[in-house]
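TA notes, week 10

Several of you asked for a full example with nothing omitted. So below is the full record: structure tokens for the whole chain, then the designed sequence directly under it. When grading your own attempts, check the secondary structure regions first.
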């Protein structure tokens, strides 16, 4: 008889394990389309419009696949976990899309994906890491890559909008880093946390849209915004959670760093320009993130 865990069907441990890798790759495929679809969506939509549509799509996808099929009650997270989940989901996504709207999208996309480096720095700095020196050295090397990425095209630095985009991308990475460090303190359903945080994001961005005075978008742009929520944010997150739960967490997690590579490749194919300096910086960031991930970013167990 089939079982259901966290809204995802499980037929048996062997079958679940065999599905982990395909699910991880599917999630990476969804995530890799995020930046390039956002690029086209932001042509006709404002940031609050894109975000409201994205959260609407995500809430629908999480409800449908996490609770609606099969029917099961929504498990609401505790207040602390909800606040953290809202920071991790809403803060990360809003700052990321603000960065997309004012900065060079290929560059700010890679900066936003530098969150594992920030995670390593924070864990080492507060003294709860097993190998703080290794983490700090790896992170320092990664931030050299960030410098190369930003400086890869000096002309971009002459635009105030670009600087604002870099700052928003760093803010997105900080939100994700703090979420990553703190979420382990809570025992919470991934579906329940994403659904609840998504509802908060939907309420906030819908209000933002209304107050901005932006009208109703054309149908093609509306569909792009909904896809960003249903695909990368909703189904992508559920598939990734499934892969981590039933696969080997270490190798599966390392696969996640294929996302910035693939998303950057899609942006380049869509016509985004990148200098060799920016490419070198992006590669350094990705390599250092992989080193942090494969180095098992662990915190001391005696820290409450």
């Amino acid at each position: 008889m089939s079982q259901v865990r966290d809204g995802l069907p499980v037929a048996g441990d062997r079958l679940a394990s065999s599905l982990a890798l395909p699910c991880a790759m599917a999630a990476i495929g969804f995530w890799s389309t995020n930046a390039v679809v956002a690029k086209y969506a932001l042509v006709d939509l404002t940031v609050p419009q894109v975000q409201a549509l994205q959260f609407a799509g995500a809430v629908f996808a999480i409800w449908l696949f996490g609770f609606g099929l099969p029917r099961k009650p929504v498990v609401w997270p505790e207040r602390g976990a909800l606040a953290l989940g809202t920071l991790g989901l809403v803060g990360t996504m809003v700052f990321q899309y603000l960065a997309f709207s004012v900065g060079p999208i290929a560059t700010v996309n890679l900066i936003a994906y530098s969150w594992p480096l920030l995670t390593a720095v924070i864990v080492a700095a507060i003294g709860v890491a097993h190998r703080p020196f290794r983490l700090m050295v790896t992170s320092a090397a990664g931030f050299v890559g960030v410098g190369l990425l930003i400086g890869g095209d000096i002309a971009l630095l002459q635009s105030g909008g670009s600087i604002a985009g870099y700052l928003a991308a760093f803010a997105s990475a900080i939100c994700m880093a703090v979420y990553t460090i703190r979420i382990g303190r809570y025992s919470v359903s991934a579906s329940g946390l994403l659904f609840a945080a998504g509802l908060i994001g939907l309420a906030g961005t819908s209000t933002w849209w209304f107050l901005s005075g932006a009208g109703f978008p054309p149908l093609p742009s509306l569909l792009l915004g909904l896809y960003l929520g249903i695909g990368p944010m909703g189904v992508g997150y559920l598939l990734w959670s499934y892969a981590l739960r039933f696969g080997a967490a270490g190798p599966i997690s390392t696969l996640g760093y294929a996302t910035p590579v693939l998303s950057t490749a899609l942006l380049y194919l869509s016509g985004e320009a990148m200098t060799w300096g920016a490419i070198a910086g992006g590669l350094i960031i990705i390599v250092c993130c992989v080193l942090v991930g494969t180095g098992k970013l662990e915190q001391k167990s005696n820290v409450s």
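The two ends are 39 Å apart (CA to CA). Use that as a sanity check on your answer.
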